[in-house]
Known about the structure:
The complex is a heterodimer. Chain A is built from 22 helices and two strands. Chain A is mainly α. In chain A, strands 1-2 form a two-stranded parallel sheet. In chain A, helix 1 packs across helix 14 and helix 11 runs antiparallel to helix 12. Chain A is globular, with a radius of gyration of 25 Å. Chain B is α+β, with helices and mostly antiparallel strands. Chain B has eight helices and 21 strands. The model of chain B has no long low-confidence stretch (mean pLDDT 89). Classes of the chains: A mainly alpha, B alpha+beta. Chain B: Keywords: ATP-binding, Cell membrane, Ion transport, Iron, Iron transport, Membrane, Nucleotide-binding, Transport.
Amino acid sequence: MPTRLNVSMMLVSSLLALPVIVVFASWSTPQLQIWQHLAQTVLSDYVFNSLILAFSVGIGCLIIGTTLAWCVVKYEFWGRRLLQWLFILPLAMPAYIIAYTYTGLLDFAGPVQTALRDYFQLSYGQYWFPEIRSLGGAVSVMVLVLYPYVYILARTAFTEQSRNLKEASGSLGVSSFNYFRKVAWPLARPALLTGSALAMMEAFADYGTVQYFGVSTFTTGIFRTWFGLDNQLAASQLAALLCTFVLVVLLLEKWSRRQIRYYQSGQSHQPIMRKKLSLSRSVLMFLLCLTVPFFGFILPVGQLLIWALSYTEMGLDSAFFTLMWNSFWLAAVTACLVVLIALLYGFAKRLSPTPMMTWQVQGVSLGYAIPGTVIAVGVLVPLSWADHQFNQITALLFNLTPGLIFSGTVFALILAYTVRFLAVALQSVEAGLGRVTPAMDEAARCLGASPRQVLWRVHLPIMRASILSAALLVFVDVLKELPATLILRPFNFDTLAVSAFQYASDERLIDAALPALAIVLAGLLPVILLSRAMDKHA
Amino acid sequence: MLDVTNIDVFYDKTQAVNHTSLHLKKGQIGCLLGPSGCGKTSILRAIAGFEPIKNGEITVTGNILSSEHFTLVPEKRNIAVVFQDFALFPHLSVAQNITFGLSHLSHQQQRDRVNELVELVSLQGTEDKFPHQLSGGQKQRVALARAMAPKPQLLLMDEPFANLDADLRDELAKDVRQILNHEQTTALMVTHDQQEAFAMADVIGVMHQGAIHQWGSAYDLYHRPATRFVADFIGEGVFIPAIIREDKYLTTTLAEFVLPAKYNFTVGTEVDVLVRPDDIIHDDMSPFSAKVVAKSFRGAHILYELQLPDPKIQKVLCLAPSHHDHTLGESIGIKLDLQHIVVFNR
Lengths: 538, 346
């Protein structure tokens, strides 16, 4: 029985690993001509822009996320609780959507420049204004929505630092600033760097923002090589290169934590002592902190609302409901499937905790780090091949050509989403399964429950919350996902994300507002879930 | 009632239990006592049906539950287990935890049994609480009630008091014993704590390296240890050297004794005699004296560690009434008064 389980899990794992293997295998047929062309023209841009983008975003998120976390953990001021909640809202905002809103706000015809011109009586070309559609602009908007990765981990890390540490440092004559530098920062460093690495991986993976801002990076390069130069192999090879960059970040992050297993000795659950600020400082602190979620969430959502409510010509018509329905069922089906597979892995690892199984779980968990563009390329290449073979066989046998039944249907999309988001569900499911101790299984068994009854009466009820949150997280991630959806969606099949992207690309930002707003609102659900979980933790 | 005969238990290739047997009569409370890793929990798990056995057999009232090629699934055994971490179901209330194994009964019967058990384990008023709202002692009581609910033919307890405070432990041990007697349940527990074993069990098996060294009452284990390990593990004591003389006489530095008839040593053999702290009596008139090298106050008694003049004997222990307060370095007169003569090969 366990061997049958192991074999089936191996099959699932191989299918999930296929896209990445295909992408890397593309190097077995080097496309020298194309690479020569790329090297002479755009390759240095791809590398340079991608690296600058990722590292700037990583550092920006590190600074902003750590500062905000330090403020809410160490100081008591008016509005702190509200801010704690506001700080994680930008998670609901995909980078490409915030990019559209800021373009609408800040470009030549936008309200900001118009107001400046009116006020100073200036006309075009008479003044300098920073160009939002640039590398700097891309870094700025991404930092605004990705800093919560660092903030969340930093807040947990600072909260867990025992009060005794602060008191011990004080008694040794360490000032507040030196306490941060010598104690709090080194203790929290592994968590902060993990958050920063996550932000960097998101930056590497981004397609919507850089494409819209006209910044050439690996992701836009992959699209251009695939659809512009029509060279799938070279596109796969670019994807492999991008993948390597991301894996290097992942390894660096692991390396940075190599021997750091700091833990807090003893069980100190004293409430955190926050320094109380005077009223004037309190208000100042609140306003300063508020700027980040204001620009990262409140302002862009306000802009989207204004566009959606007063300007859009599209309205809530049947076309929009088709979009909603497409997105909804695709996300729902994927969420169910991904959670089922995650449960399968969770139970397989529990029933047969071999090194092989652990290795497989870690392997398929890597999917979250692989950019959507890379996965899409890796899915499309083998599925097109499979379709081709299948059609040849059916043509030969039945004189039938059923068409692109793998690569041209939602099958390809769902496979890509599964590869990318399985880790999200796995994490949740494993946490839930961890709450069912082996002794609980045995207790249920000796109280007369068969293994199947143990599953229904013990495991599933205890894991219900984890399963639901896993499904919700995957649901929203699928809703937000752009590049893989763009590449793999069946002909004439639009989702909210795709339609927002297309309207924006056609310079119809106002029409993009409604689908964008729908994505942001759906994205709020897991954020609320997360904030409740964090409050419970603290 | 429970017969475990010559069983072997393996984890992969490591042997945890080696050809071990034990027998319990109906209503008896047995205990497996030993240091961690001695295989005691493995025996329990084999009886519960969580681990297969490689040799021998396990029967309850004559029915085979496990043999070399057969392991009856745990849910068909009607054997209940109380786990070290209690393993209460966190999503179920106290009453629902207790009724978990009663799904074959009607609602009314389930309610009656819950009421009966809740009263028995003194948990009235907590029926609707959830495990995370209970104290450690209460969790233990729920775990016991849940295990007893289906009226199991045998109750197994794995270190049932290990997660509790010392005060609570004694109180609960007494209660549990009473409850088991009241329900006429046969039980087998596992512990590394001899006080716990003494407080709970009718028969105790001392285990070491996968084998039971001795299966007997607490009195026997203390005063008539069958092996050197048991003598060492149970209670305190030291071995002093002795020589077998003619006519079955035994000579030590402190006294001479008649060797009990059960021993069969040849004349001239060098042996060790077990001396418990209560075998050494403080006697100022005694010709033997020893120097106090350490002492620990135990309320009614003081345990002295004494150095004898004979360098061959390291030290002996003496449990003296605590009125006799001697300082370190002082020499006191002692007398050896062995009620039970326990001798081992050197």
